[in-house]
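Recall that a protein's primary structure is simply its ordered list of amino acids. Everything else, from secondary elements to tertiary packing, is in principle encoded there. The following example makes that idea concrete.
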Amino acid sequence: MNEYFITGGNGMIGSLILNKCLDNPKVKNVTSIVRKSTTLTHSKLKEIVHTNFLDFYEIEENFRNQDVCFYCLGVYTGQVPRDEFAKITIDFTRAFAEILRKNSDALTFCFLSGQGADRVEKSKIMFAKDNGVAENILFKLNFSKTHVFRPGYIYPVTSRKEPNFSYALMRFFYKPIISSLLPFMAITSEQLANAMVKVGLTRGNQEVYENNSIRKI
């Protein structure tokens, strides 16, 4: 496996995965599709700035003969209106995955979902229902391998501006309480990125990795 595809390279997990792939000698080339340039340069990296994540026709040639995809594009609950959340979580995922499936037959798709994702699609919690819908779309496309990662709270190893007050509280309590007493509810950003890259490179044996499973990879 030499050709790697990444979305969400500007985000917390996507950026970690991107750099780990660039540093890995087993990875030959990395194509990163972003809505805003990362300004990162590397001999392995091809960064494509693309703003319409519902239509990839203009850049379709870049979707051909890829080996592994890390899909890390998403948005935090409360950051955007309900309709926009569904568009980003479901519609963007569908449009991207369909054109990738069309152009890359033997691909391993690694999808960053979230704890509680509901593939029955009946949850009253927006995040759970929409991620469940997105997961179902991916499994129905029947990639060579599909791996879904469902972390709980993701503790940022590097400092950042938290998206809302609840995340700030979670960050404050992570080390003294959550990591020791409630490890099944949380994971560090480094643990998650390392696990996703390892599964992508080695073709893991599970379709769905819950938080505890991810911590053990």
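Helices lie at 12-23, 82-103, 126-141, 165-181, 189-202, 211-216. The two ends are 20 Å apart (CA to CA).
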